[in-house]
Amino acid sequence: MDIIVQKFGGTSLAGAEGREKAAEHIMEARERGSRPLVVVSAMGREGSPYATDTLIKLAREECQNPVGQTLAFLMACGENISAAVLALTLEARGIEALPLTGGMAGIITTDEHKEAMIRSIRKENLLKLLEGKRVPVVTGFQGVNEAGEVTTLGRGGSDVTAVALGAALQASLVEIYTDVSGLMTADPRIVPDARSLGRASYSEILQMAQEGARVIHPRAVEIAMEYGVPIAIRSTYENRQGTLVSNHREPFPGEKRGRRLISGITHVNGLVQITAHVDCSELEEEMFKALAESQVSIDLINLFPGKKIFTLPRCKKGVAVKTLKELKIKTEVAQELAKVTVIGAGMRGVPGIMLKIVSALKGEGIPILQTADSHINISCLIREEHVQRALRALHRAFSLEKQEG
Ligand code: ADP
Ligand code: MG
Q: Scanning 25, 80, 212, 239, which has the fewest C-beta atoms within 10 Å of its C-beta?
């Protein structure tokens, strides 16, 4: 049995036209002789009636601090509606379908109600369904813990559901259908001449996902990598191949194997930079311990004698500042910052990349506030208001609009 997982994102399911397209992709998979296993997200983006954010708002209007169990139960409703509606779309076209919650699909998670991790998948029910005539339409983003309570997998969690099901059921492919034509050299909403990559390696896409390319959840890529699940990222609206992700990346025309210098440029908005004036080493350790205990994850970390600099997301600023104040540490806070990252497995050992980045940003008069690098990426902290110009300048500097494939 050739199982293929087809995941449809929220924007693809919000309107009748998108659902029609989704149904066509599902029917095509069946016509090719595969058994489609469909995974869906909640319909629409922020502001849509059944979007996850709307449901969270609804909960908060009713109660300031809802208990995790109830909040997860409500948040999971968005996907339930999607699964039922898409099943109806299929029924109307003569395809028998069955909507299933995460629990019904056998997805068992850890106990947390928010950001739970998938522990195991009891696949008997799905396998039985796949062997029959009905197409299973599974809600993404949710599962149940051992106690049977509804849990959620965090923002973008439907990608994780899709790849985890693909791994458990040994699917031949996991297709991530979305509103852009694949993994692109930058967010096409910001860089209009961004190009879709025909192929990408797991490590390229993992880096891009971790550094802000929203198109797939980094955890989904990790699972795919671990279990060797091939992924395709494609547009719901186009009949194109999109981006194929596997370990074996073909060389592009005119390219020496494995030498694509730069794969893309990503960004993360809404960052805050903290400079903590800490001298004595005991206090330094205490500071990092207190931040960790307050669930503050920090990034772009530079330690100097007497001064520690790091960044965190805007939503963690309050708790971080409070924590440092309690330790009587003098701090400075810079807000409304963003991180832009140039990513490319091919940059390893290639001189002149930093020069290009510095020149491109300098040419736009954009100050670099901090940097960090690994062998396959270079990140710059800049002001959020400069993001659009920075991305476009870097994209141009590395000629990514001409990137083949
Ligand atoms: P879905 O609802 O299908 O899960 P998402 O909003 O989670 O869609 O992800 C798709 C969005 O990711 C695109 O609309 C695009 O604006 C954004 N994006 C950011 N960076 C990239 C990138 N490098 N390649 C493709 N899309 C990107
Ligand atoms: Mg998504």
A: 239
Its sign, for the CA torsion 271, 277, 279, 283, is negative
Q: Is the CB of 106 under 6 A from ligand 1?
A: no
Nearest C-alpha neighbor of 146 from the set 102, 101, 105, 110: 110
Question: Atom of ligand 1 at shortest distance to CA of 12?
Answer: 3
Q: How many angstroms does the Cα of residue 124 sit away from the middle of ligand 2?
A: 27
- Tell me: domain 264-400, CATH 3.30.2130.10, correct? yes
217 CA distance to ligand 2 middle (Å): 7
Q: Is 187 in the pocket of ligand 1 (CB under 6 A)?
A: yes
pLDDT tens for the chain, 405 residues: list them.
999 999 999 999 999 999 999 999 999 999 999 999 999 999 988 889 999 999 999 999 999 999 999 999 999 999 999 999 999 999 999 999 999 999 999 999 999 999 999 999 999 999 999 999 899 999 999 999 999 999 999 999 999 999 999 999 999 999 999 999 999 999 999 999 999 999 999 999 999 999 999 999 999 999 999 999 999 999 999 999 999 998 865 555 555 555 688 999 999 999 999 999 998 778 999 999 999 999 999 999 999 999 999 999 999 999 999 999 999 999 999 999 999 999 998 888 888 999 999 999 999 999 999 999 998 999 999 999 999 999 999 999 999 998 765
Beta strands 199-200 and 150-152, pairing class: unpaired
Ligand that lies nearest to the alpha carbon of residue 51, given by its number in the listed order: 1
Q: Is 178 in the pocket of ligand 1 (CB under 6 A)?
A: yes
Rounded Cα–Cα distance for residues 134 and 8 (Å)? 18
| CATH class for the domain made up of 3-246 | alpha beta
Give the domain ranges of the chain. 3-246, 264-400
Which is the closest atom of ligand 1 to the Cα of 9?
3
2: left (phi over 0), alpha (psi -120 to 50) or beta: beta
